[in-house]
Amino acid sequence: MEAGIPFVLYLLFGELGAGSFWTAVIAEYRGVRSEISRRCCITAFILMILAGISVVMHLTHPEHGIYGLSNLGTSWLSRDTLLILLLGLLTLIYILQSKFGLPGRTPVGFIGALVGLVFVISTGMAHVLPARPAWNTFLIPLMDVVSAAVLGMFMFATFSTGRDLPEQSFRNLCKAAGIALIVQIIVEAGYLGYLSGVPEVSLGELIYGGLGPFFWMRVILGFVVPLIFVGVYLTKGEGTISRKTLAITCLLYVVAGALIDISLVHLISEPVTLFRPEEILGGV
């Protein structure tokens, strides 16, 4: 499976949308103002639409996308299709309930969050294939879940930069995001450990070979910079860094890191393409 741009965007939009919805539901359950949650949910819904468009564009024949639900019993990709449709519907209902004051928001929110979790796991399970040794591990769906959580928390933080959210609540959100980043580092380090035992993959080429610059960009953009920003905010407060600067900068960096990460994970499933950069560049 090549790292086609539409499919990479599908995974990115899917993780970002699902993670944003989880965070919004949990935050609202914990008493955060519904307006912040509603803005985050609207963004999540838009991201799910973009994810749906991206996965259809990934198909060789997009007009056959209607058959995506034809193999629910055996295909994780078919389950993905059903789950993202269901998640989009539940997100829309949750938004409308907030706007019109309709009852039953709590069960709809938690069911939607659960569907979102299963959706992200499903996208990861679609890659756990014996034919692709670099993917044949349950660390893949775990990486997707942790990535979605990180993306969702920084997305929610971006909508919480005003004074609607109390300072202590914003600090708690930053702490949770920092912990999620550390967990993500541990999980991805575990994946590198797994790759070290896969004969088809040269870990040296990934870390300091042809794709080394991309690997270290992922580490710096997705981990180092956000952790520094979060650490400075938690220790020095807004006198050093504002909420808006923290949230927007970290969101942009973790999205860039996730984009590189998804691309690299797909590239390492093709060892020949991975370790011959001239094939990627088409001989240029």
Explain this structure to me?
It is a single chain. Helices cover about 75% and strands about 0% of the residues. The chain has eleven helices and no strands. The protein has helices at about 5-30, 35-60, 75-100, 105-125, 140-160, 165-195, 205-210, 210-235, 245-265, 270-275, 275-280. Helix 1 (about 5-30) packs across helix 9, helix 3 (about 75-100) packs antiparallel against helix 4 (about 105-125) and helix 5 packs antiparallel against helix 9. The longest helix has 29 residues, at about 165-195. The radius of gyration is 19 Å and the shape is globular. Residues about 270-284 have low confidence and may be disordered.
Provide keyphrases for this structure.
globular, mainly alpha, single chain, 284 residues
> Count the helices. How many?
11
Distance between the termini: 23 Å
Based on CA atoms alone, the radius of gyration comes out at 19 Å
Strand content: under 5%
Structural classification:
mainly alpha
Secondary-structure map with pairings?
Layout: H1 5-29, H2 34-58, H3 76-100, H4 105-125, H5 139-158, H6 167-195, H7 203-208, H8 212-236, H9 243-267, H10 271-274, H11 277-280
Helix pairs in contact: 1-2, 1-4, 1-5, 1-9, 2-3, 3-4, 4-5, 5-6, 5-9, 6-8, 8-9
Please provide a brief summary of the model.
With 284 residues, this protein is mainly α. The chain has helices spanning 5-29, 34-58, 76-100, 105-125, 139-158, 167-195, 203-208, 212-236, 243-267, 271-274, 277-280.
